[in-house]
């Protein structure tokens, strides 16, 4: 066993310079970061975010160093293995000089902000030698995280376990629960406004939990939205002219190749040649307090990409964005786009390798871009299977052109929506893209989610196809489940209704469940029971797993409700809770509903929300050109600061589906400021400075 800091590599800090930045906290504690340059702003973002969640920011840095296992044990070591297998730091280091000077200045300023906070708060530092952080650390984080959003884990994990990956791959990340996004142009609204609903479903804590902020520089940046820990700017939101939402998509962007090895296992055949299989010994460090257990592993690589050797053979993995560090470049350019053409120019970089973009702007343009870096795959291969690793013609080297990617812009209906479903269902039936217009080898998904079924059912019920503001919000906050036989709820319901009860209590539960109205709106006697049983179905349905276990699910729900509530029909709001510190508020909604709340069972039998609706934003360009923006966060800005006012200051509003204002105008922000300070200043926390 080793004392971990003694084995950790250290890195030189970014070049020293002064940063001209001010942080303005509004009445909800949301940071508005004002700087002379974009780099100044990035420094301030790091400082403000560290004030609110330094714990998670350090976890992210540990991941970019391959050291997360030292604090997160075996689960962290699995991420460290992926870090080594993909060569995330090697990619970031190799391509760092290729990034623009402006982008390098931004990531270095962000790293400098983290370093300054760590130096000012040494008692909060988790691991010695973690600081100073560098710009390469920031870029490494983007390289490492990106491919897991579109399902790389669904290929690597089975191969590591000695199995062949499912085709197409499915996500194995429990925290990934989808998202919603809606865009309406003036032709799709009753008042001529353009509206955008940003509604990404993320874990409520951790490395991919949303943090709300507003950033403004004298270099043209003025953007409100949210980021993940480790990002210098918001990843979604809006400026004065345009905005976008993101939803996870699942195209098949990962290919698996079976290698032919020689007898030594050290070379593989590629065409007429035998090439050396690159091998490198790594050490995964699994933490036990201040000590670590070093665990040796070997990672391999071929011309295709990372290689995993198991009892079935040697398998190479090639995936969209492999060895590409440009994602951070695209994300720092996007917030400065001022019109549709500029936005599309930035998106044409194809450096964000997978995730839907739903777009809207002040001119009334709306769109869905099924964004992905689609491999330029050759004809004649089964791209849904395991490919021959010795055939050079099966190795793709480039991506299809941006104009070949499925995109729906400005449909006549004025309505666009996505809920992690196929891009073929996004608007009025007459406006939708046609799958026959795109080659199957692109790997575009065909799946449909409950949320997609519900959004289209509700939209089609509207007589003129134009939604008021109130109708749009009713759609977004719908708690219902579709009875459409193509959706997982109908299949799960059939299994539940086929259960043979094993006791009188289970018989009573089944009778009660049969009366459920298919909505977790808190208005029916069966809602609490339905909430207990629907999560199992939602998990299997969303992940594409085979349905099963209905009898066990119903039995367990019956037992838990009677144990903790003494009845099968307690009010849903007594059961489903938003809990944070002293806040404990009942709410409605459920797993894979448009009002998405996924939950963990508490010792007292309550279901505590943990994933789903989190940061939500409503952006409106009125018919007269006025911009109005509103948002809400499930907890508050002080994400990991228990005992501070904004640790849970938005909980009640979130549970009641209420909004708070979002301001871009600097004078208006300062007029409503609760606190104004510079990084390093002593904060009063009780007023303007």
Automatic annotation (TrEMBL):
<dbReference type="InterPro" id="IPR002692">
    <property type="entry name" value="S45"/>
</dbReference>
<feature type="binding site">
    <location>
        <position position="254"/>
    </location>
    <ligand>
        <name>Ca(2+)</name>
    </ligand>
</feature>
<dbReference type="GO" id="GO:0016811">
    <property type="term" value="F:hydrolase activity, acting on carbon-nitrogen (but not peptide) bonds, in linear amides"/>
</dbReference>
<comment type="similarity">
    <text>Belongs to the peptidase S45 family.</text>
</comment>
<feature type="binding site">
    <location>
        <position position="255"/>
    </location>
    <ligand>
        <name>Ca(2+)</name>
    </ligand>
</feature>
<dbReference type="GO" id="GO:0046872">
    <property type="term" value="F:metal ion binding"/>
</dbReference>
<dbReference type="InterPro" id="IPR043147">
    <property type="entry name" value="Penicillin_amidase_A-knob"/>
</dbReference>
<keyword id="KW-0865">Zymogen</keyword>
<dbReference type="InterPro" id="IPR029055">
    <property type="entry name" value="Ntn_hydrolases_N"/>
</dbReference>
<dbReference type="InterPro" id="IPR014395">
    <property type="entry name" value="Pen/GL7ACA/AHL_acylase"/>
</dbReference>
<dbReference type="GO" id="GO:0017000">
    <property type="term" value="P:antibiotic biosynthetic process"/>
</dbReference>
<feature type="active site" description="Nucleophile">
    <location>
        <position position="179"/>
    </location>
</feature>
<keyword id="KW-0106">Calcium</keyword>
<keyword id="KW-0479">Metal-binding</keyword>
<keyword id="KW-0732">Signal</keyword>
<dbReference type="InterPro" id="IPR043146">
    <property type="entry name" value="Penicillin_amidase_N_B-knob"/>
</dbReference>
<dbReference type="Pfam" id="PF01804">
    <property type="entry name" value="Penicil_amidase"/>
</dbReference>
<feature type="binding site">
    <location>
        <position position="252"/>
    </location>
    <ligand>
        <name>Ca(2+)</name>
    </ligand>
</feature>
<protein>
    <recommendedName>
        <fullName>Acylase</fullName>
    </recommendedName>
</protein>
<dbReference type="InterPro" id="IPR023343">
    <property type="entry name" value="Penicillin_amidase_dom1"/>
</dbReference>
<keyword id="KW-0378">Hydrolase</keyword>
